[in-house]
């Protein structure tokens, strides 16, 4: 943490602001873990009037820097696709809490920009920045922005834990072992009626995902689970491509 030479006035103002700060409205649901959380907008809307009342303001500055890690990526040139290694860039947010007296405190938090299928590096970076801003802002103000289940939920049985782990795996946009899931490959996969995925409407594909998710929650052997995950990934690739008007 960095700070001005004195933070006496800032500390008094923040203490008073925290005493009047209402609870943040949990307006969103995590699609992976199913827990509720407060969006960045909710944190800002809740805190901004109280901060202004006590002469406080927050500024969040985005920065990037090269990382020390490397990851394999698929690149394209005139001859086609090929694999290579690229440096993993780091994107971060510096949150500065300021007082009208000129006093301030700040802190930085950062994450590596990974590769997500169907997203450009700019889109991935944007998602990370929003995520970091939400946590950094609620942290520096002493607010909570996530549902806390510790001590409030009964202990999970081993079976329930396995179900949660499977659901996280199913929801995550991960690569299925084997050939990479390209748009061309995804569109050629057929359903049980022999119709290619590329010829199915979006609502039909979305209904199929619900059925696949239901099947994945049952006890399956590794081969069948891999088949289900491949089909789900193919549908995801097609829906994203259509949303981005790539096909």
What does this structure look like?
The chain contains 7 helices and 6 strands. It is elongated, with a radius of gyration of 23 Å. It has 2 domains: 2-140, Enolase-like, domain 1 (2-Layer Sandwich), CATH 3.30.390; 158-243, no CATH class. The protein is of the alpha+beta class. α2 runs parallel beside α3 (121-140) and α6 packs antiparallel against α7. It has a 4-stranded antiparallel sheet with strand order 1-6-5-4. The protein has a two-stranded antiparallel sheet with strand order 2-3. A hairpin with a 6-residue loop joins β2 (28-29) and β3.
Features of this protein?
alpha+beta, 6 strands, 247 residues, Enolase-like, domain 1, 42% helix, 7 helices, 4-stranded antiparallel sheet, 2 domains, elongated, two-stranded antiparallel ribbon
Short synopsis of the structure:
The chain has 247 residues and is of the alpha+beta class. Helices cover 42% and strands 23% of the residues.
């Amino acid at each position: 943490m960095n700070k001005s030479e004195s933070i006496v006035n800032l500390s008094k103002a923040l203490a008073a602001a925290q005493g009047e700060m209402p609870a943040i409205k949990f307006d969103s649901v995590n699609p992976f873990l199913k827990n509720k959380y407060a969006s960045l907008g909710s944190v800002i809307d809740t805190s901004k009037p109280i901060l202004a009342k006590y002469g406080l303001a927050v500024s969040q500055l985005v920065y990037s820097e090269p990382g020390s890690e490397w990851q394999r990526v698929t690149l394209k040139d005139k001859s086609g696709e090929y694999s290579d290694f690229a440096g993993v860039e780091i994107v971060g947010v510096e949150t500065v809490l300021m007082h009208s007296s000129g006093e301030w405190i700040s802190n930085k938090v950062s994450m590596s920009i990974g590769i997500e299928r169907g997203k450009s590096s700019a889109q991935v970076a944007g998602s990370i920045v929003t995520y970091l801003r939400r946590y950094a802002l609620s942290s520096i103000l002493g607010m909570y922005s996530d549902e806390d289940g510790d001590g409030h939920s009964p202990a999970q049985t081993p079976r329930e834990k396995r179900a949660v782990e499977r659901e996280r795996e199913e929801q995550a946009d991960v690569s299925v072992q084997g050939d990479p899931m390209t748009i061309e490959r995804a569109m050629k996969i057929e359903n049980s009626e022999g119709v290619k995925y590329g010829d199915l409407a979006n609502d039909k594909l979305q209904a199929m995902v619900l059925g696949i998710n239901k099947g994945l929650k049952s006890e399956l052997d590794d081969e069948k689970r891999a088949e289900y995950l491949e089909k789900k990934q193919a549908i995801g690739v097609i829906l994203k491509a259509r949303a981005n008007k790539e096909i």
